[in-house]
Amino acid sequence: MSVRNFVNLFKLKILVMTLETFGSIVKEEQLQTVNEGIIPNTLVLENKDPFPGYYGAEPSDKVPDSFFLVMTQKESTEKILRLTHIIRGISKIDFEGSPGRLCIYNDTYQVIRIRALCDFTKLAEIQHHYRDNAIQFMKKRKIDAPGIIQVKKIFKVTEIDDNILKDADRDMYYLKINKQLTWSHFRSITFQVKNNLPSSSFDAGLAIIYGSEVLDLVRIYAKNISLDYLKEIHHKYNEIISRDKYEYKQS
Question: Which is nearest to 218 in space by CA: 167, 177, 180?
Answer without folding.
Answer: 177
